[in-house]
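ARCHIVE CARD
CATEGORY: sequence design from structure
SOURCE FIELD: tokenized fold
FIELD CONTENT:
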């Protein structure tokens, strides 16, 4: 991974619901309240170390798991790169000062990144890195070539964006967003029109966007459990997952503070009912992070998914009180429906 002399481096669901590296280990700076560490992308782009130049590119979870697994060592042959639940994944390549090249893959749950690397000649190893506490553009870490028991130190400085890196990262001005919602509709009251809309629904997801407001990444899970007959249990699963295709974050001022709104297109990546909501279906997403207060004292956060032609569930969540929900009061954490949107 590194120069040979040192060793290899390595709603109320207000339901409109129509059912008919080489080696790299970076650690990020502290996260703002309301954001999980893994929402932040510290690694995308090209970095310079004393031994080489390396690039990290963000990968979707399924691709990332496969890529990292392909570089993991056989039992006892070296250290494995293992992260916690729902990590971000990266892969990339590197070129050492002596001309040696290689590939690497890594995972991170926030401030530390763990990875595996493999030189073109087959030598491999493990690495870990952490972003400096005072500078998101610098990291320090260690790597260990397979077959050895000594950690070797190294460090890196951010150089810039790379084609297809999935950034920008935090150093380059990347910012995070997240959404969490809940709706427990139990009575047919406006805006609901039928028993088939008495669903338990949630939307959860996160991603990041750049200094210009352009959204770079975002994935979401929309969990939807509905009755299959009047008065019956919620035994019909209409859950879907989707990802951002494109989007923009805008900011407006208000007496209570800045109101940030994300509007974009989303695409279904998995579906429990592909006969109704097929994979690949494109829809629209709106997220609003607002400090303004509504009548019940809750903030004016809002989330909505809309699908042209209603092939998938159109849904919206906010913090208003609603007679359709149980309990009828709105707002987290114990309201009948609520929305928490954080846009940094």
């Amino acid at each position: 991974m590194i120069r040979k002399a040192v060793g290899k481096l390595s709603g109320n669901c207000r339901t409109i619901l129509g059912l008919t590296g080489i080696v790299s280990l970076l650690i990020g700076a502290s996260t703002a309240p309301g954001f999980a560490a893994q929402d932040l992308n510290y690694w995308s782009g090209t970095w310079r170390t004393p031994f080489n130049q390396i690039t990290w590119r963000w990968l979707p979870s399924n691709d990332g798991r496969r890529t990292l697994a392909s570089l993991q060592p056989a039992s006892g042959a070296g250290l494995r790169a293992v992260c916690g639940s729902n990590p971000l994944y990266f892969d990339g390549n590197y070129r050492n000062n002596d001309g040696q090249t290689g590939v690497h893959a890594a995972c991170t749950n926030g401030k530390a990144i763990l990875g595996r690397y493999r030189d073109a000649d087959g030598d491999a190893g493990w690495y870990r890195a952490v972003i400096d506490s005072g500078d998101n553009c610098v990291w320090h870490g260690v790597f260990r070539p397979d077959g050895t028991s000594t950690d070797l130190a190294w460090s890196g400085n951010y150089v810039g964006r790379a084609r297809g890196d999935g950034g920008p990262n935090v150093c380059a001005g990347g910012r995070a967003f997240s959404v969490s919602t809940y709706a427990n509709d139990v009575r047919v009251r406006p805006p609901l029109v039928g028993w088939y809309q008495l669903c338990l629904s949630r939307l959860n997801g996160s991603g990041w966007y750049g200094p210009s407001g352009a959204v770079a990444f975002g994935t979401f899970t929309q969990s939807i459990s509905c009755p299959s007959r009047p008065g019956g249990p919620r035994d019909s699963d209409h859950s879907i997952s989707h990802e951002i295709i494109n989007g923009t974050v805008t900011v407006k001022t208000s007496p209570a503070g800045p109101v940030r709104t994300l509007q974009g297109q989303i695409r279904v990546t998995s579906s429990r009912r592909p006969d109704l909501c097929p994979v690949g279906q494109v829809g629209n997403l709106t997220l609003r992070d607002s400090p303004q207060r509504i009548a019940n004292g809750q903030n004016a956060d809002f989330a909505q998914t809309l699908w042209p032609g209603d092939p998938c569930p159109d849904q919206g969540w906010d913090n208003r009180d609603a007679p359709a929900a149980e309990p009828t009061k709105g707002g987290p954490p114990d309201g009948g429906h609520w929305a928490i949107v954080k846009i940094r």
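CARD ANNOTATION: Residues 175-343 form one domain. The chain has two domains: 37-160, 175-343.
SHELF: design records, drawer C
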